[in-house]
């Protein structure tokens, strides 16, 4: 066992993972499993639940996998009841579920807005309400990791309600870090930006989705070189690594913080590396790009 394993001390711990069947959630589940964590996970993707659970069992982990719509309070309560019967206590909660689709606010219905709020904030409240007593049972505190987004930290046109809901999750989590601190329960957040996943692809509406379908991969790579300071978006495994850190004793004095796992996009705040020999990193392109675009 290396120094990171010894200091991280995740071996033998128990986690609840809300949204662990595919994409980022699956990467988190497998990373935790490889670190020696037993997992209760839920999702609406039955095939994904079965596949992720099988991979975790192959690692020697104890696994509870259930079909649950986390946005339904009754189903979430049933999942936590089953989890309490499966584990006597838990050490970690990761709330991954979230998402939306890009659409101007005035085109969204009241139902659309309510769904965005529940999917990106409301269920987090209920999940933490159920999880805290199970975390307390461990007698050694615990760690909660909630997923927010870069959109919670900027004006995100086309994602207004989603951005507002994620901002609510962010501030709620910070407030809960203060409230739960005396119990030894830490609460932190991970804020991704664009990450290659089916969920992010689904958020793009028509006709953009069709227009993007035949764009060569190398064009996307060049676009990210313009936008992301580290030249590429983070992978699902990069986000899983951040969860491992915040969940582990390596972060035992960190709570109430937002960890931006975005290749530096949040730090850049709109600065772009424009092409066509501009050499400019300003938000507005210079002459070379302007001539290519409009000349």
Outline the structure in words.
With 295 residues, the chain is an alpha/beta fold. It is 47% helix and 13% strand. A 7-stranded parallel beta sheet has the order 3-2-1-4-5-6-7, sandwiched between helices. The N and C termini lie far apart (61 Å). The model has no long low-confidence stretch (mean pLDDT 91).
CATH architecture of the largest domain: 3-Layer(aba) Sandwich
For this structure, what is the CATH homologous superfamily of the largest domain? NAD(P)-binding Rossmann-like Domain
The description of the largest β-sheet is:
7 strands, parallel
Which outline best applies?
globular
The helix/strand order is HEHEHEHEHEHEHHHHEHH
**What is the CA-atom radius of gyration, in angstroms?**
20 Å
Terminal residue distance:
61 Å
Query: Mean pLDDT, nearest integer?
Result: 91
Uncertain residue ranges: none
Beta-strand proportion: 5-15%
Which strand order do you get reading across the main beta sheet?
Answer: 3-2-1-4-5-6-7
């Amino acid at each position: 066992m290396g120094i990171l394993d010894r200091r991280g001390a995740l071996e033998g711990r128990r986690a609840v993972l809300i949204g662990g069947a595919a994409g980022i959630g699956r990467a988190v589940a497998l990373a935790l499993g490889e670190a020696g964590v037993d997992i209760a996970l839920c999702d609406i993707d039955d095939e994904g639940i079965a596949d992720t659970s099988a991979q975790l069992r192959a690692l020697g982990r104890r696994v509870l996998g259930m079909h649950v719509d986390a946005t339904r309070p009754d189903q979430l309560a049933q999942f936590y009841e089953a989890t309490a019967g499966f584990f006597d206590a838990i050490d970690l909660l990761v709330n991954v579920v979230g998402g939306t689709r890009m659409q101007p606010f005035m085109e969204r219905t009241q139902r659309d807005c309510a769904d965005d709020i529940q999917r990106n904030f409301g269920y987090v409240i209920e999940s933490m309400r159920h999880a805290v007593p199970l975390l307390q049972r461990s007698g050694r505190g615990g760690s909660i990791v909630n997923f927010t987004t870069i959109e919670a930290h900027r004006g995100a046109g086309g994602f207004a309600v989603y951005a507002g809901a994620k901002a609510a999750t962010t501030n709620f989590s910070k407030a809960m870090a203060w409230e739960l601190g005396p119990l030894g329960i830490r609460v932190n957040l991970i804020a991704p930006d664009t990450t290659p996943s089916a969920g992010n692809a689904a958020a793009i509406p028509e006709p953009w989705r069709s227009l993007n379908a035949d764009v060569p991969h190398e064009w996307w790579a060049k676009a990210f070189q313009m936008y992301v300071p580290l030249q590429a978006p983070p992978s699902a495994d990069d986000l899983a690594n951040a969860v491992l850190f915040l969940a582990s004793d390596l972060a035992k004095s960190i709570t109430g913080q937002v960890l931006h796992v975005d290749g530096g996009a949040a730090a850049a705040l709109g600065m772009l590396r424009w092409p066509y020999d501009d050499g400019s990193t300003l938000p507005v392109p210079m002459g070379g790009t302007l001539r290519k675009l409009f000349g």
